[in-house]
Amino acid sequence: MKGLLIKDLMLLKSQGRFFAVTVILIFIAGGVFDGSYAYFGYYLMLFQALFVVNTMSMDEENGGMCFLMTLPAGRKAYVREKFCFGMLMTAAGWTLSVLIAVFFTAIKHDPADLTDLLPMAAGGLAVFPMINFVSVPLILKFGQEKGRIALAAVFMGLFGGLLLLLRSKAALSSGMDRLVLLFTRYQTAAWAAGLLLYAALVLACYCLAVRIMAKKEF
Amino acid sequence: MLVQLHQVEKHYDPFCLRCSLEAREGYITGLVGPNGAGKSTVFKLALNLIFPDAGEVSVLGLPAGSLTDAERSDIGAVLPGAGFCGSLSIRDILPILRHMYRDFQEEYFVKKCGEFRLPMDKKIKDFSTGMKAKLKVLTAVSHKARLLVLDEPTAGLDVLARDQILDLLREYMIPGNRGILISSHISGDLEGLCDDFYLIGDGNILLHEETDVLLERYGVLKVTEEQYQALDKSWILNVKKEPFGYSCLTGQRQFYMENAPEIVVEKGGIDDVITIMIQGEAL
Predict the structure, then answer these.
(1) Chain B touched by A144 (CB under 8 Å)
(2) What are the beta bridge partners of residue B198?
(3) Under DSSP, is residue A73 helix (H, G, I), strand (E, B) or coil?
């Protein structure tokens, strides 16, 4: 797996100029939007997360997947590496975004911004790796183009569902209130349940990707 | 046995591969046949890139699908149009190979890159066809693999580049405990390199023969209609209709040279075998 990870880091290096320009643009956008984390931090993490999808596209270039599968890394290792690389990329994106945010906060001399930053940054750290985890099995199953469409459909479906939930807030208000009450009362248990659910989702994506890869012919 | 396909079947409607073949240690085994005959399917089965619908594929004595990473590092492969991403350079792939193969011979690899004039910092996508082919073969032979699976490693190369690659393969075989399964459209390459070869046509193995036997014993009889009618056909393998009469492939050239001196008997080569076995008819 280490060899595959190095391969992706080398691919990242080969795209270095493009990355540098993007980070500079994001930095400028951060200045334009008054250092607001939501404008540049999330974009940076999304950009980093989608790079994993790009590496899968590069792997497929000129029959590359066929060649990679002849190397002593195996199908399972390929999936494992994409998950690890995804985590590595979003962690790097997150660190960079937080550093930029701290930079703008220091310029504005407003410590309150840092307090606002923390929950937003933590939210990003949970959401953006999930884009990776979901995209790996989808792209392995449907290929690059259809996989991206499927990925967009999954997230649009999620946001659509959320929107519907908010619209029917009145009908659900009692249920939601009860949920909020439960969350406030049993905060530790709620966090643990949330983390468990998150881990279960990651594991499901991983197992699905491994299964798809095991059956895939090149 | 390095590679063994035992009664393997693979269906791609309407094509169907049905074959058994072996590649032994110390042997360079060639797989020849026309386009679409099933050569690449055989290579992909041996590399576990596709799965058989029936039969068994074993590599290095183990089922192809059960090899561990350590066992897979004993295999080097070249597939047409498949390699590292074009955005990488040779300098980029060095650490990848170093971490991928436990016995990667970096010094040898770099030295050979120099000999083959492969630039270390140029992106692979900017390489010529010959440079890409040399890099692929060099990657396959640089980690002390016991088995090389090479599908058309010399495709699209000029004579000099082909010779360099064939020399590299001969050098690779020196330790003696290694083997190669190779295909090529250039029969001259295989005649000078392979110890034995399989002829595949329409998904079936039509012939398996040692190259020395083929070159010594096989021949093509060029006969007119009248000569054909009178011919002793006991040792004729296949016959192809020609404008002048028939071309008959035999595995006993000497027999016809001695017993039918009036007939033109040419030495057989892989090209003749392919042409008459594929386009001709069995008696």
Answers:
(1) no
(2) B31, B208
(3) coil
Distance CA(B98)–CA(B113), nearest Å, equals 16
Whether the predicted interface score ipTM is above 0.95: no
Neighboring chain B residues of A3 at a CB cutoff of 8 Å: 96-97, 99-100
Per-residue DSSP letter, B28:
E
Q: What is the pLDDT of residues A3-33, one digit of tens each?
A: 999 999 999 888 878 878 887 887 777 666 6
pLDDT at B270 over 90: no
In single-letter form, the type of residue at position B230 comes to A
Instruction: Answer yes or no: do A3 and B96 touch at CB < 8 A.
Output: yes
Q: What is the CATH number of domain B3-210?
A: 3.40.50.300
pTM of the complete model: 0.86
Cis before B261? omega within 30:
no
Q: In the structure, how many helices (H) and strands (E) does chain A have? A: 8, 0
Secondary structure letter of residue B268 according to DSSP: P
Q: Helix, strand, coil: what percent of chain A each, to 5?
A: 90, 0, 10
The bridge status of strand B179-183 relative to strand B204-210 is unpaired
B234: number of Cβ within 10 Å: 9
Kindly give, in sequence order, each residue whose CB lies less than 8 Å from that of residue A3, ignoring residues fewer than 6 positions away.
Answer: A71, A73, B96, B97, B99, B100
Identify which of A101, A103, A131, A104 has the alpha carbon closest to the alpha carbon of residue A118.
Answer: A101
Span A153-198, pLDDT tens digits: 888 888 788 777 767 766 566 666 777 777 777 878 888 888 899 9
Hey, what amino acid is at B114?
Answer: G
Reading the block at residue B218, the tokens are 């096989």
> CA triplet A160, A166, A171: central angle to 5 degrees?
125
Q: What tokens does A2 get?
A: 């280490």
Interface residue A29 vs chain B (CB under 8 A): no
SS3 content of chain B, % helix, strand, coil (to 5): 35, 30, 35
Interface size between A and B, measured as CB pairs under 8 A: 89
Chain-centroid distance, C-alpha A99:
19
